[in-house]
Amino acid sequence: MQCGTDVLEDQYVICKHCESQLPFTNFSQIQNSPVEKIFWGRVKIQTVVSILFFTKESIVQKIVFELKYKQNKKAGYLLGKLIANELIYSNKHKHIDYLIPIPISRKRLRGRGFNQAQVICESIIAHGYNIPIFKGLVKLKDTPTQTHKDRKNRGNQTNSFFFLNDFENLTNKHLLIIDDVLTTGATLEAASYILSQSNPASIHIATAAYTLH
Ligand SMILES: [Zn+2]
């Protein structure tokens, strides 16, 4: 992940210049942004932020690929930093009680060695947005690969893949779900739906990237 022109410090996956050139969405400054509209009519979400645009062959795709398929935690460290920078200065995220990383199945966890959303959460905390991580959301098995066009048909089907421990602890709490990439929103919708069963005060979502269709 070298751009060739800069010396990389140890903890970084790209240099400061490349970081400043990333395709930031600036969605947090927009009312009813595209990522918030994704969930309209599906499940009640208070706010949705996605920091970067994810497009094919882009540097954002490379960073996410490093994190998920090359076991490169530095990529997650960067994505967590970018999310933290957004949350720390956001008036809408002052009262969050728990960060909730989207879980992966035990099978996938064995293969990958870590949950990428968990790595992102740990980086968010390390970069100053110091909110405890809720660990009671569990993925029972892998969600089948889904395409954009069958989004309408799969709502209830995906719900059964998540399981929630610690129901009571979420009641009247403000929850912030964290994931790497928001694409159709099906996974986040399923997770939000099961979390909503515990009667939280609010559910928010923050992802590192948003897939442009
Ligand atoms: Zn660079």
What are its keywords?
binds zinc ion, alpha/beta, Rossmann fold, two-stranded antiparallel sheet, single chain, 213 residues, globular, four-stranded parallel sheet, 8 helices, 17% strand
Structure description:
- With 213 residues, the protein is of the alpha/beta class.
- It has a single domain, classed as Rossmann fold (3-Layer(aba) Sandwich).
- Helix content is 33%, strand content 17%.
- The chain contains eight helices and six strands; from the N terminus they run ααβααβααβαββαβ.
- The protein has helices at 16-20, 34-37, 59-69, 73-88, 106-112, 116-126, 155-159, 186-196, and strands spanning 47-54, 98-101, 137-139, 162-164, 174-182, 202-211.
- The chain starts with 15 loop residues before the first helix and ends with a strand.
- The structure holds zinc ion.
- Zinc ion (ZN) binds at residues 3, 6, 14-15, 17-18.
Q: Assign an overall shape.
A: globular
* Fold-level CATH name: Rossmann fold
Q: Terminal Cα separation, in Å? A: 25 Å
Helix content: 25-40%
Please indicate the percent range of residues in DSSP E strands (runs of 2 or more). 15-25%
- Largest pleated sheet: 4 strands, parallel
Number of strands: 6
Model regions low in confidence, pLDDT < 50 over at least 5 residues: 153-158
